[in-house]
Amino acid sequence: MLKYASVALALAALGVAQQSEWGQCGGIGWTGATTCVSGTVCSALNAYYSQCIPGTASVTSSAPATGPTAPAGALPRLGGVNTAGYDFSVATDGSFTGTGVSPPTSQYTHFTAEGANLYRIPFAWQLMTPTLGGSIDQSFLSRYDQTVQAALNSGPNVMVIVDLHNYARWNGGIIAQGGPTDAQFQSIWTQLAQKYGSNSRVIFGIMNEPHDIPSISTWANSVQGVVNAVRAAGSKNFLLLPGSSWASAQAFPTEAGPYLVKVTDPLGGTSKLIFDVHKYLDSDNSGTHPDCTTDNVSVLQTLVQFLQANGNRQAILSETGGGNTSSCEMLLGNELSYVKSAYPTLAGFSVWAAGAFDTTYVLTVTPNADGTDQPLWIDAVQPNLP
């Protein structure tokens, strides 16, 4: 990345480098070209991000750029954090051996007071239904619901993502592709719909990070089955539809996206079917390193173009994040600023992670014991909350 930044600096100095339409052209830490192609103007969206926007007059406002009109009933602008714990020890093959750890409920009032209005609360499938396809464990549901209610009660406009965190798997088997049946997958969501279906501020994240899926079309059919099942149970909640390759925002337009845009909603329309995407900023997009190497803006621009070309659909970046390092403070700030500018196509974000993670975790945004926040939250996240 540094090599290309150096080239861009050199060309800019010669006055020949120009950014393309919708490309970044400025902001704190930006080292690339600052002029735009003919017909566009480098417009400051906020301190972290300036963009080449079609037009003839400069925009110097911290307000997001005007985008497509939000569909009736669309998700509002959202921003917040994953509060992990009930997912602890879920492996990427969908196996689970733990008991889960309850996130501290004090975090919800803390973050909401600072402008957050979205919390994603992941849980292990095996905790919610110890027997595959069986009844929900009411003891665990009561424990989990206390956390959900604490988040909802932290503010009148707060929304919660109830997130099934099993990678489209149960103990190594892929849903409808050698593992759980579609009926077993639908069963847990039918029961959760009966619990939360009357609460419009609860969003159903139907599966975290499907990966290495042999048949994407079969996966899309499994997603359609869950949509049908929760609607049959009376739910009108927003539903998050995840793609493939770890819910990759980069892969979505060419892998799962063309299948998932065909998923229909028995309620009519598609405004309550939201695409669920993830993207990290470290060198291998794993979210395991403290340093960041990209701001993902070009990836998200491609995603926005795909969504707008397929019915002005919405997506949410429900996992992203970085370490408390200068590179991540700058690059995550750039990324989240772009997300904010791309509303309503990008409805918002939730960063990874707080909750039961301690302050030594590599991507922590958990507040310190004295109530102060991590540098990443202060410098990159908080400025881009709704």
Question: How many beta-strand elements?
Answer: 13
Could you name the ranges where pLDDT drops below 50 across 5 or more consecutive residues?
1-16, 56-66
Structural class: alpha/beta
What number of structural domains do the residues give? 2
CATH superfamily of the largest domain: Glycosidases
**N-end to C-end Cα span:** 30 Å
User: Which architecture of the largest domain does the CATH hierarchy give at level 2?
Assistant: Alpha-Beta Barrel
- Largest sheet features: 8 strands, parallel, barrel
Q: What's the short version?
A:
With 386 residues, the protein is of the alpha/beta class. It is 29% helix and 18% strand.
Please outline the helices and strands.
Elements: H1 2-14, E1 24-26, E2 40-46, E3 49-54, E4 78-84, H2 106-113, E5 118-123, H3 125-128, H4 138-152, E6 159-164, E7 169-170, E8 173-174, H5 182-196, E9 202-205, H6 216-232, E10 239-242, H7 257-260, E11 273-278, H8 297-309, E12 315-319, H9 326-341, E13 346-355, H10 375-381
Parallel strand pairs: 4-5, 4-13, 5-6, 6-9, 9-10, 10-11, 11-12, 12-13
Antiparallel strand pairs: 1-3, 2-3, 7-8
Helix pairs in contact: 5-6, 9-10
